[in-house]
Amino acid sequence: METIYLLVRNIVFIILLAVFVEMLLPAKEMRRFLEVVVGLFILITILNPIVSFIRQEPLLELELVEGREEELQSILDQGQELQQVQDVQARTNYGKRLEEQIAAVACIVPGVDKAEASVSFAEGASMESAAAIEKVEILIKESGGEGADPVEKVSVGAGEENEQGEEGERGADELSDKVRQTVASLYGLQAEKVMVIFK
Questions:
Q1: Which of 11, 46, 67 marks a domain boundary?
Q2: Looking at the whole model, is its pTM more than 0.70?
């Protein structure tokens, strides 16, 4: 109400001043310029309270925000907790799918019948980079003749037994290296991070 009173008072004062100056002017040609100047003064007088009101609006919003700072902080905390839960779930799902893929890749290698994989992730690493994988353990079972009875071990001599044992170890090492190299190359890992264990 006080703003309207001041606005009306200022407009009346400007009009009275304009009438007084108009009476003092000697030529009628100057009246046009006077009318333009008076119009500008009236326009400024009307717009001044509006501009001051617009400038005060952000201050009012800031006061409202400061009043509810505790509520906003609790909402932000809840959002961070939800994000952490989602990260854990995403990491778990990603780990399961990755283990299934690695087991399938290991089964592609000739000589592997079944495979199970276990993946360990580095803490704080981004899931999109290969550095997120800290260690891969692959438990494999060598393929043999399906449906056939297992062959019993026959020992003929001490020397032959040692040769057969060494050949078996070499075959297992070669198969282990093949699986390790295949998995490491497909997933961009260092071969040291891939461990192959036989059942």
A1: 67
A2: no
